[in-house]
Write a structure and sequence with these properties.
The protein is mainly alpha-helical. The chain has four helices and five strands.
């Protein structure tokens, strides 16, 4: 339902009229943005519905068109490239997680000999993985 078929992360949906009131974007402009592929609204009883991410994306697109003078087709290309970068980051994060798992299983850490440091300077004995997985910094 949300932009570029991302999984919906919340249950909040907005109708076209609500999006018009929230963003100030004309309904025909919403249709033009959807035709250009900037957003991919879902359907509820045959009417388009938008999620929070769609509304944020629509506002960004409106600003690019109105304030920066970027044509809608180029805005769509910018969003497509951004989506591709985000997908590549997710794939890379997954591969890095797999690599760390392989390293952890192939090279056990002797207690007290190897340490890990965080970007903030914090030090842990052994291999430490803060959070659920390691992320590459952007």
């Amino acid at each position: 339902m949300t932009s570029n078929n991302h999984e919906r992360r919340d249950d909040v949906v907005f109708t076209t009229i609500q999006v018009v009131h929230l963003t100030g974007i004309h309904p025909r402009t919403l249709d033009a943005f959807a035709r250009a592929g900037i957003v991919h609204p879902g359907q509820d009883i045959g009417q388009p519905v938008y999620g929070r991410a769609d509304v944020a994306r629509l506002c960004q697109a409106r600003n690019m068109v109105q304030h920066a003078g970027i044509p809608v087709a180029q805005v769509a290309s910018i969003f497509a490239l951004r989506d591709q970068i985000d997908q590549t980051r997710r794939e890379l994060d997954h591969l890095v997680g797999q690599l760390w798992a392989e390293l952890d299983s192939a090279m056990p850490t002797p207690s007290g000999r190897v340490f890990t440091t965080g970007a903030d300077g914090q030090v842990w004995v052994g291999r430490h993985r803060p959070g659920a997985r390691r992320r590459l910094s952007r």
